[in-house]
Structures are given as structure tokens and as C-alpha cells.
């Protein structure tokens, strides 16, 4: 059955529409949206497919969806703005604004360490429940009390889920506002439909997330208890599954998850909203030029036991790389999310790109997002 695709595609960008259609016809897409702005002008804004697994709700321009780690760059942006405002320094100890974080030798962990996955707390050591997951104070307190898995600053380990409570906790302590509140203050003037904590009135717009069977591995289905696995493998498992729903498994389509603030993992938005946010970043509207340049250059690199490969991070943003290219230009930056969601900007071309979808396959880069990015650059 042909999938209805609607929206804007300016002349010259037809290859992006063709790639988007091919994602449904050839690559298993269920529901998705893609948006491209060039120097602030929208040239592509397409939606298609279904917002639910039963194929009863068409995906519309009002649909929003959980975009997973795309939100890491967004919560990092909030922390960077606090730095620009002089509320905290990039190399200040986290404990200077969050005294409890100094526990167990973490007094030397800095804001820069937090933003670059060097803070030493990719997992929480205390066993937590899903009731804890939805309690901001409980989660941030447990994170602050965690003994570091390695000395802060000495090793890059991707903070899969703790990143949101770590960097979001810094935002909260520095500004006095929750990350979701700070985000709305940015996004409302931009008309950017991006959220940490979706209000009840907005939740009917949320698409269902559909996990591909090969990705739906939880401690229950794998037979693993993270607390019975020793050493580094135990650390990795706790990062994913302590609390059990930290990666969204079993809770992703619930009202409680959508309303919560888990900024590393449960940000929601539209492709248009993500593109608008990156367009404002690359235009210099949200960060100083100096801090944006610092944030988007390589800051940490090394082999990561969580991602299983060599990786490089900026200050929350991921610089383009040979393995995960964000187009052909060297200064592009952004962040992928589980299943292939993607937001990025390219200062060379003025491009801002957003892609969100609801059929989650188990990796960041996919044939779907790669085909869209490749098609875009053939059009420029």
C-alpha cells in the first residue's frame, strides 16, 4: 500500500522527497517526518506514514515523537546557555553548584567532564525502580551519590541515560529552573515543537514508538540482572537498565514517561521543531560564537565500552565523522538518537536538519537517515 506523504518540498529538493518515500517503500519506515532549513528558510517539511502500530492514525505536521539521544545535544545547549550567562564556568567543578555531587571523590569532576562523557558516572550504582525513574529528585540524588566507575576526566564512557540527569541537574542547579522549563523558554519564540516533559494536553499528538523485535532486549527477556554482572559489563547494563525503564523499555508509550523529564532519552518533538532549533543555533541566536565554536569541536575521544567503538564528542554535540557523517563538510555538528532520529546543522551551507520516526531499529545511523542526508547534499 502506498504511503501518503504530505508537506513542503521546494523545487530542487525533490531527491529528498524521493528518498523519504523510498524509506517507506523499501526500508520499513512506519511513520516519520523530515525537515530542512537553509539559512532559516524551510525548503523541505514532509511527513508520512502512521503514528501508531495499528495504522489508524496518520502522521501529521502536529505529530511529535520520542527522539531519544537527539535530546542530549538539546540539554547540553541549556547548560551551555547557563555558561554564556555567567551562571557557571565550563571548567568549574560540578560540586560548585551541586555540592552533593562531590561524594566519593567526584569533587574534581567539572562541567566540561559532564558535557563530554568524562564525568565517570555512566550508571547509577544503587538499585532503582521505575517509580524512582519518574522522580527527578530521587534520580539526581542517586546519581550524585554514586561512586564514580573511574576517575572523572580519565576515560570516555558514553553516559547513555545518566547524561540527562547529570547535565539536566547542572542546568537545574545553575538556573533554578527544570530543563523542560528552560527549553520551552527557548522554543516558544522559535515556534519549535520540542519538549522535555510533554504536558497532558499535548500528549494526544504523540506517536507510538514501535520497537523492532531485534532491538527489544530488556533484562527480563535476556535473563540478565544488571546487579549480578560484575565489572565493566555490569556497569554497561546498569547504564541501560537501572532503573529498568531508563532506556524507555516497557514505558515509552505511557503518559508517565511522556510527562517525565529524562532529557538524555525522552525528549519529544517534530522534525520541524528540531530543524528550527538547529537553525537558531547555527545562526548564532542561542549561543555566543565563541562558545558554539568550542562546543562543536572535538573535546573527548577514545574507545567507548558502551558504544563498542572509537567515538568523539564535543560539548554535548557530536562533530561530523567518517563513521557518522553529517554531510560532506567538516564543521557540521548534531546528535543522533536510537533508531535513527537526527538533528544537525552545517555552518558551511547554513543547513539545519531534523528527522524523527517511530519505528526504532537498534542503532544511531541507519539506511533511512543516511539516504535523506545524502539526498539533501546532492540537491545543494
Write the topology of this structure.
Layout: E1 5-9, H1 14-26, E2 31-38, E3 41-49, E4 65-66, H2 70-84, H3 111-115, H4 130-133, H5 136-145, H6 162-175, H7 179-190, E5 194-195, E6 210-211, H8 219-222, H9 231-241, H10 255-259, E7 268-269, H11 271-282, H12 289-295, E8 300-304, E9 309-313, E10 318-319, E11 333-336, E12 342-346, E13 351-357, E14 359-360, H13 367-379
Parallel strand pairs: 6-14
Antiparallel strand pairs: 1-3, 2-3, 2-13, 4-7, 5-7, 8-9, 10-11, 11-12, 12-13
Helix pairs in contact: 1-13, 2-6, 5-6
Describe the structure.
The protein is of the alpha+beta class. Helix content is 33%, strand content 16%. The chain contains 13 helices and 14 strands. The protein has helices spanning 14-26, 70-84, 111-115, 130-133, 136-145, 162-175, 179-190, 219-222, 231-241, 255-259, 271-282, 289-295, 367-379, and strands spanning 5-9, 31-38, 41-49, 65-66, 194-195, 210-211, 268-269, 300-304, 309-313, 318-319, 333-336, 342-346, 351-357, 359-360. The strands form four sheets. A seven-stranded antiparallel β-sheet has the order 1-3-2-13-12-11-10, with helices on both faces. Strands 4-7-5 form a three-stranded antiparallel β-sheet. It has a two-stranded parallel sheet with strand order 6-14. A hairpin with a 5-residue loop joins strand 11 (333-336) and strand 12 (342-346). The chain is globular, with a radius of gyration of 19 Å. The protein starts with a strand and ends with a helix.
